[in-house]
Amino acid sequence: MAKVNENYAKLPGSYLFTEIAHRTARYMEEHPDAKMIKMGIGDVTRPLVPAVLEAMHDAVNDMSTSENFHGYGPEQGYDFLRNAIVENDFAARGVDIAADEIFVSDGAKSDCGNIGDLFDVDNVVAVCDPVYPVYVDTNAMAGRAGDYDEAAQNWTNIVYMPTTAENGFCPALPERDADIIYLCSPSNPTGTVLNFDQLKVWVDYANEHDAIILFDAAYERFITEENVPHSIFEVPGAKTCAIEFRSFSKTAGFTGARCGYTVVPKDLVRDGQSLNAMWNRRQTTKFNGASYIIQRGAAAIYTPEGKQQIEDTLDYYRANARVIKEGLEAAGFTVFGAVNSPYVWCKTPEGMGSWEFFDLLLTKANIITTPGAGFGPSGEGYIRLTAFGDAEATKEAMQRIAQLEL
Ligand SMILES: *Cc1c(COP(=O)(O)O)cnc(C)c1O
């Protein structure tokens, strides 16, 4: 008899977005004329920019002739894209990363999940709380999380590091030694960042403990403040203790097109093994590369026109984030994030739980948000709003909130 991976049976249902959809559908059934504004799910809405589309069209045409046809490409990504990444995302910020430390993929979610292939089941994993659920669930699938405790809403073997207003959204070093540490800056869901000094504490910790930091920089392009690293490799010592995930999804609207990359430095060695060589072995065995057409599109964001065009789209979302932050603050709410992120993390009114506030906004303002509790126990007392929507709808949402009587 085939035996299945029993860890899957331990996973709690993906309750958060199903429950949001369920509550929204029920409300809309009773109020079919309600004009709902979606500020919940973290997906972009603006179209791909012209430079990207043109490059993709040209790449499609390449595929139509035998001279320019592209079959299997390098599993690690085409040199035209890896070199553009090295030059623009790293060298331009004074960070020395080589092209063979860049692994292009179909997105950061797969890489964040697949990276677990390189690690033994016997590692202590630490995550921030609240957290992007992918980090936790993929470790649970691999058997590193222990058992799920329904009452406490956490896994017995995972180290949770609360990030809340009380600690300025910077996790304290864990009491129990952690081997693998996930950090996300700018953070999904809190929209907050780790500045240079805060990140350096973690790099030093990881080097002292021979731990590895898995650094998710999917929202790096939203950083506006100085002194906030765009890459963990801006911090001295990070090359011996960190792997970084990047994505074109939020940067350039690739959530549907699919492209990202992972940086695995050659200096990163544990148990005498090069993590770069291991990831290369893993990718060449299990992955046949991202699509040529999509990689051509991704490379176009590094051209002068492409850079300007994606900046314009990012500015559209940044303006929405400002509208949300200022609108909520004017209505008397305490908010975090937004400045370096498309996410706004809003404190619920005194004494109100995050699902209760979600329901209130749903029914009284017809705005769909995400309850913070869905991202982990320390998310209780907050909701997340996203700046990825339509500008007019975003303004309308803030007017509705201003008129609420709380
Ligand atoms: C959106 C997102 C990603 C990017 O995922 P893709 O698979 O590249 O679309 C990665 N990490 C976080 C935290 C995200 O929110």
TrEMBL record:
It comes from the Bacteria. Pathway: Amino-acid biosynthesis; L-lysine biosynthesis via DAP pathway; LL-2,6-diaminopimelate from (S)-tetrahydrodipicolinate (aminotransferase route): step 1/1. Its cofactor is pyridoxal 5'-phosphate. The keyword Transferase applies. Keywords: Aminotransferase, Pyridoxal phosphate, Transferase. GO terms for biological process: lysine biosynthetic process via diaminopimelate. It holds the Pfam family Aminotran_1_2. Gene3D superfamilies: Aspartate Aminotransferase, domain 1, Type I PLP-dependent aspartate aminotransferase-like (Major domain). Residues 35-401 form the Aminotransferase class I/classII large domain. GO terms for molecular function: L,L-diaminopimelate aminotransferase activity; pyridoxal phosphate binding. It catalyses: (2S,6S)-2,6-diaminopimelate + 2-oxoglutarate = (S)-2,3,4,5-tetrahydrodipicolinate + L-glutamate + H2O + H(+). Its EC number is 2.6.1.83. It is an enzyme of class 2 (transferase). NCBIfam families: DAPAT_plant. This is LL-diaminopimelate aminotransferase. It comes from Denitrobacterium detoxificans. The lineage of its organism: Bacteria, Bacillati, Actinomycetota, Coriobacteriia, Eggerthellales.
